[in-house]
Amino acid sequence: MFLKLFIILLLTITFVNTNKVTFNGHRVYKVIPNNDNEKEVVTNIQKQGIGEFWFDQFDVYDGVRITVAPEKIQQFQGTMRRHNIVYKEIIADLQQVIDDQLKPASRSERSTSFLSFNWDRYHTLDEIYNWLDQLHVNYPNIVTTVVMGRSVENREIKGIKINYNPNRNNTLIGMIEGTLHAREWIVPATATWIIKEFLTSTDPEMRALAQNIEWHIFPVVNPDGYVYTFTTHRMWRKNRSTRNFTSCASTGVHDDMSNGVDLNRNFDFAWMEIGASDNPCTNTFAGPSPFSEPEARAVADYVLMLNNQGRLIYYFGLHSYTQLIVVPYSHITAEESSKLTNYADMYEIAARGAEKLKERFGTEYRVGVSADIMYPMSGTSFDWVKNVTDVPVSFLIELRDLGEYGFLLPASQIIPNNLEIMDALLEIDRTTRRLGYYYSGTNSLISSMTLIGLLIFVKLFVN
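Structure tokens predicted for Zinc carboxypeptidase-like (463 residues):
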């Protein structure tokens, strides 16, 4: 009997994992609950199997995006009208938008390429990894291919190290991790662009940013989930762990949703305190324990190794969407975070980056702690890194857009997104240097005012 049940379960999981999910005729609605009663009605939309949320976390006045199958549209609209809840259709056919995202941007629009890679379309994991290998071949004295670890399904978590001065002392180190959440395709498109700029740009400030710091960049930390978004389920968020598989009937979603852990809730800092779930059938399932997932563990081990090898100055976690630069910590308020050693500096660095970013295309990014500008959350990578290493600058950056396309950002927006992000990174670095963080040899950082004072003192003394 047990063997029979096991075979049925195995077949069920196999069936779930090998049949591509399509969204023909599915519509996406935006709903903003104006009070707790409306919030409860909206929450029940998913529990009743009427629609599926893009985000599990929302509150009163938040814009909730809900995917509704064709056969459920009348039921959804009827529920909204019955409770006088305002709703707006933002995507008429979800599958059409998914298909359109796979089309390269028009050649009449600005495009560029570097080796086998270009940024007029989104790339598969194999294409990204092959390109990283090419970089090592073409820049053997600067680029080293690095495998941080392996995923649940034993895929490599591959990135590169960029080091123009391997023999220097007091190495400054920056790390960029991307695609903890699988469906955020604009993230690896941005991370790879950053790599290209660090290797090819002739702009003096870009050259300085690339050469003054040893960079470790991992475009896809969740390779299994990323592959799954191409082969099976475009809207998949988590990794692909199957050990928590269970029935999701009571939550109104397919049982496949119980597979996977939200890697950005799996880090061992304030784990499961807020903004995370212990229910495998949710997108924010934090896992059975901190660092239960090999992908999160690999990031943590790698960061600790870097912190021992040099001085970690930057840690950027790239995500999408909502156009934010988020500063630590995500489980507490800004007032509580302001007590951190360099919170004011981090906020200024982020704010100046956002201001500079806006200059090119007018794109507005908000700055602050997650609880104020997004939602409270815990067990995140960039918060863990800040807490463990006291890295001066640790940001979670939510890329384009504000929800018109969300995770399905058209390929035509890849390069504009990347250009403005590079503007922000350069301004972030300018401000970081101005505040004195390049010059500190310890975690007790020297402010720019202190440096100026020292220089004045030396000049007066010498004279």
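DSSP finds 15 helices and 14 strands in the chain.
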